[in-house]
Amino acid sequence: MLQRTLKKAVTITGVGLHSGERVKLSLIPAEVDKGIMFRRVDLKEDQNRIIKLNPYLINDTRLSSTIVTSDGIRIGTIEHLMSAFCALGIDNVLVELNAPEIPIMDGSSLSFIHVIKEAGVIEQKKEKVFLKIKKSISIDEGDKKVEIIPHDGFIVSLTIEFDHPVFNRSNQTFQIDFSHASYIDEIARARTFGFMQEIELMRTHNLGLGGNLNNAIVIDDESILNPEGLRYPDEFVRHKVLDAIGDLYVIGHQIIGHFQGYKSGHAINNSLLRKILESDDNYELVTFPNDEKLPDSFHYL
């Protein structure tokens, strides 16, 4: 299987979920082995350099995965875009934006899927590199746990736990095995969500300033405020799966393994990536010159 980039550059506009700022976002084709890169074009010349993504750049995980460089450059809420890149097998791309946060669009990854497909996806003249998990690796933080175990494919299993009437009526566990399930059908439309009282508190800390019923599921003490209701009966946990896929793709390769999360979030997901990279005994980088040996989970790419 070969690396992938976009056929042409494409631009969209939207609003940052937490900053509330209007954002112009451009996705630009990149050469082989360049990876996922970001650039803040609104900054001065000495700060608008290209930033190649890696797990050690995710240094703010309050409600999202946010790049924070050593000199303070911020690029927030990257997880939905990263999830779309993973779903479509994009290895090399430059993301340019003129604000400190990726636009939230409708709160899911569907808009990013559409814009990537609009640009077109092309194969490049070098093998795609996968990261294959060789041994079980886990992290426990209080009542949260994540683990990744060896598996010849890609599975995400996730459980959330909220003591609330809305969640009690919804399945809070979901597993997707990409050897026979479609990300676009099963995951892409799931939106981010939040509680009304938390949104009010977030706004006092200058977070959630761009959130509304058009880009998030909003929940009060008893019910969902969005008049159209849910897109999936278990949309909440499916969105957490969407987030986890985006968080995992920060490692720079599609993972061959089975991710399991219990009450997981951006911080513990990133800690897992860093733990994976601590030792070569945990993983190996592999290619598949012969697609017949490619795990079934990646034949949809």
Lay out the secondary structure:
Blueprint: E1 2-6, E2 10-15, E3 22-29, E4 36-40, E5 51-52, E6 58-60, E7 66-68, E8 74-75, H1 79-87, E9 93-97, H2 110-119, E10 121-127, E11 130-133, E12 137-141, E13 144-149, E14 154-159, H3 165-168, E15 173-177, H4 183-186, E16 193-195, H5 196-204, E17 217-219, H6 235-249, E18 255-262, H7 266-276, E19 283-286
Parallel strand pairs: 4-9, 11-18, 14-18, 16-17
Antiparallel strand pairs: 1-10, 2-3, 3-9, 4-5, 6-7, 7-8, 11-19, 12-13, 13-18, 14-15
Helix pairs in contact: 1-2, 1-6, 6-7
Explain how this protein is built.
The strands form 5 sheets. Strands 11, 12, 13, 14, 15, 18 and 19 form a 7-stranded mixed β-sheet that branches. Strands 2-3-9-4-5 form a 5-stranded mixed β-sheet, with helices on one face. With 301 residues, it is an alpha+beta fold. The protein has helices at residues 79-87, 110-119, 165-168, 183-186, 196-204, 235-249, 266-276, and strands at residues 2-6, 10-15, 22-29, 36-40, 51-52, 58-60, 66-68, 74-75, 93-97, 121-127, 130-133, 137-141, 144-149, 154-159, 173-177, 193-195, 217-219, 255-262, 283-286. Helix 1 packs across helix 6 (235-249) and helix 6 (235-249) packs parallel to helix 7. The mean pLDDT is 94. The protein is built from 7 helices and 19 strands.
